Amino acid sequence: MKKPLHLWQVPILPGNVYAINDALSAEGAADDYETCLKHLVNSGVIAKSEASGFPKFDLQLLGMGPDGHVASLFPGHPLCKESKKWVTHILDSPKPPPERITFTFPVINSSANIALVVCGGGKADVVQRALGNSGKNEEPLPCQLVSPEGELKWFLDKSAASKL
């Protein structure tokens, strides 16, 4: 088995990496990162979606949690309905750590393309609900709210796809 690749091993210029400032509170880090993104959009480093006005990433790589969450957007949480902020914070995450920052759905969905990667049999029921014919009358899961301007591709291992 290969060793995992870490970001520091990828030949990306350090000036092209925009890390979250984890020395700040979750709220402060979210505000700081949104300010950074706005600067990058205003200076033309990141494109702006003509359709939404939010930043348009070429590709976002997302995972899905066993409850159907993506990024740090959890089922039934009010942040799933955030429509103005680019980056926000959560203080009551149902999954550790409790304090996180996350892109909002307007930013996620302004992407040109999204790859949603799901691994493990513990997520098979949620994958079935999200992609199958069940749960039509239920509130959509966060993974079902992912709808980029371009293409959405789901990448499932055999275990995650076992109930489709």
Automatic annotation (TrEMBL):
EC number of this enzyme: 3.1.1.31
Pathway membership: Carbohydrate degradation; pentose phosphate pathway
Residue ranges annotated for the Glucosamine/galactosamine-6-phosphate isomerase domain, each copy included: 9-154
First-level EC class: hydrolase
The organism's place on the tree of life at top rank: Eukaryota
Alphabetical list of Pfam families matching this protein: Glucosamine_iso
Catalytic reactions of this protein: 6-phospho-D-glucono-1,5-lactone + H2O = 6-phospho-D-gluconate + H(+)
Signal peptide: none
Matches recorded under CDD domains: 6PGL (cd01400)
Family that this chain belongs to: Belongs to the glucosamine/galactosamine-6-phosphate isomerase family. 6-phosphogluconolactonase subfamily.
NCBIfam families: pgl
Protein name (record): Probable 6-phosphogluconolactonase
Native source organism of the sequence: Linum tenue
